[in-house]
Amino acid sequence: MSSSSDKETCYKLLYNYFEHETFSNLMMNKEGVSDFVRAAVYGTITYLIAIDHIVKHASGKDVSSMDSKTATIVRFGSWQLLFSEKVPDYAAISSSVELAKKYCPASSGFVNAVLRKLQSLPQEQKEISFYKPNIRCCLKPEIYGIFKKNYGQEKALSIGEALLRIQPTTIRVNTLKTTVEELSQRLEEEGFKVTKSSFMPDALAITPLEGRSIDRAKSYDDGLFFVQGEGAMLASVIAAPSKGDKILDCCAAPGGKSTHLAQLSSDEASILSLDINDSRLELIRQNLKRLGIKSVTVSGGDSTNLEATLDPASKFDIVLCDVPCSGLGLMSGKPDIRHTISYERIKELLPKQQTILSGASGYVKEGGTLVYSTCTINKDENEAQVKAFLEGHPDFYADNLMQFLPAGIILDADRQEAAKEGMITILPDEDSCEGFFIARLKRRN
């Protein structure tokens, strides 16, 4: 069972998150954060929409109307009652009341009453499957509506439920320094559980030790791998770089795709990595040094205005545009997105995506490749953007992806058809990883 100090840590972190809108990953990147604290904080944030709905259903009390300290304790206690398999009901309630007595004494009786009403619900009403689809998936109605519009009701529910499951941490083996087999053995010797990834041959799935992060492993410091999702890895594979290629990576930080492109071209291409954020440029430099990669040059630059950074006469064999997006495919690992993203925010992103893709296309040489990728599964940001681009740029065409796809990837009839038209969407329910979209476009000779 978790300790009272762990629960107090959870309360403080969650209060900071709700009150000051701190990013959850920044809160968790600290030494000494226990597995319970990590699970409880991420779990409360992930299931927040369902928690608030069920609390109101059980007690008639709207959590958003409570003062911030009381609301935090009610939400954390509710997560323990509804979603934790390790905390007995009596302990969830009593520890929540003790937190209230310490941080908001006037609310201790109220917290006790609300949580006891939640505890007394019939069992089926404690299950999120009892509620309407967006509550089951812990998504805002407008975001669930995007999934339903794009994929239909049955598939939207499947995707939404998959995004509630914690996906394994995946790493890309740095084949410039080691092999999959050698790294697997070394990580197991360091105490990590290692399994095969879903479909990328140079990737591994990792289960960290209690309270220990994979990026604190000795093999990480030695540059033997890069922590990266399989969808992001697939983008570089689809780009298909070769030795001697001149490559532009727009919006490159923290350097996952740049370093992968270098790896795939035996560190013998010429890669320019651009990013607008100076602190994130430093992340690229740190990763290049750690991985031992020499073929990448890092430069500041705004990908919505490449003319201000690049010579208009510059041409590249490959241009990669991993554009700013809604991040809907990442919600299993970044639960903040469930609350920060909105339909209005997505509409604001669309022109920026169009600007980056159109501007970058001017730097693709004849016969060269333009790769467009996002970490979202929203078709307005994906297929619709590619279609609009091709309609406005007849000197480009969609390139058949089939020859670039790894053998382990699921290929049903719909995915094959899309791949032949130059596009693929990686889905969390089908591919057991983050959601991702990639298109490969070619400039005509």
Distance between the termini: 66 Å
Percent of residues in helices comes to: 40-55%
Give the strand tally.
Answer: 12
**Structural class of the secondary structure composition?**
alpha/beta
Largest sheet: 8 strands, mixed
Query: Rg, please?
Result: 23 Å
Any idea what the shape is?
globular
Strand content: 5-15%
The average pLDDT score comes to 94
Q: Enumerate how many helices there are, as a single number.
A: 20
Low-pLDDT segments: none
Short description:
The protein is an alpha/beta fold and 445 residues long. 46% of the residues lie in helices and 15% in strands.
Task: List the SSEs and their pairings.
Layout lengths: L3 H17 L3 H5 L6 H12 L1 H12 L8 H16 L5 H15 L4 H12 L13 H4 L4 H11 L1 H10 L6 E5 L6 H10 L3 E4 L6 E5 L10 H4 L3 E3 L2 H10 L6 E5 L5 H9 L5 E6 L2 H14 L4 E5 L15 E7 L14 H4 L2 H19 L2 E11 L8 H10 L3 E3 L14 H8 L2 E4 L1 H4 L4 E8 L2
Parallel strand pairs: 5-6, 5-8, 6-7, 8-9
Antiparallel strand pairs: 1-3, 1-4, 2-3, 9-12, 10-12, 11-12
